[in-house]
Write a structure and sequence with these properties.
By secondary structure, the protein is of the alpha/beta class. It has six helices and six strands. The longest helix has 17 residues, at 163-179.
């Protein structure tokens, strides 16, 4: 079972990112479960969401304490919140950061991937909404979901928002996928 934990701030689409991963996982033939964890949510407050993906029915409903994949949508949370709690050297870590200002992390997490998600989001959306963007790095560096399945998930999730929103999100996720070096 893959246990994915996503960290971000209220208003950054952390919950939507988890839902998109779960929808894409269904397209890949997996069982999936996505759910958030937040208290009194307010814009800018640290929040997290979770996704479980497995090839058999998922029974457990508890939050994820030992992630196999960790996505950090907002690098300012590093040091402010224990985003690495429960992560091991086997955890795949994806951080929204254009460059590594934490050299010690590469030793601690050999599967560390940085993505310029904010840069891409600002270019395409004009604002720092990285929830779909950063999933390009997930597709590139894991076997959980493919880029095609994520595109289908975006089409499904954002159908009511119109073709322009769908097209921008697909462009953003594709750019992130192409920029990531694995």
């Amino acid at each position: 079972m893959e246990n994915i934990r996503i960290h971000g701030r209220g208003g950054q689409g952390v919950v939507t990112a988890a839902e998109l991963i779960a929808i894409a996982a269904f397209y890949e033939g997996w069982e999936a479960q996505a759910f958030p964890n937040f208290g009194v949510e307010r814009t800018g407050a640290p929040i997290q969401s979770f996704v479980r993906v497995d090839d058999k029915p998922i029974i457990t409903r508890e939050q994820i304490y030992r992630p196999t994949i960790l996505i950090i949508q907002d690098a300012t949370l590093i040091g402010a919140v224990d985003v690495f709690a429960g992560a091991t050297q086997k955890t795949t870590v994806i951080i929204n950061a254009a460059r590594n200002i934490w050299p010690e992390l590469k030793n601690k997490f050999p599967r560390l991937y940085l993505t310029p998600a904010t840069e891409i989001a600002l270019e395409i959306f004009g604002k720092n909404i990285v929830n779909t963007v950063i999933l390009g790095a997930l597709a590139k560096n894991t076997k959980i979901v493919s880029l095609d399945s994520l595109k289908k998930a975006i089409r499904e999730k954002f159908a009511a928002k119109g073709e322009a929103v769908i097209a921008k999100n697909i462009l953003a996720i594709t750019k992130d996928y192409e920029k990531i070096k694995n």
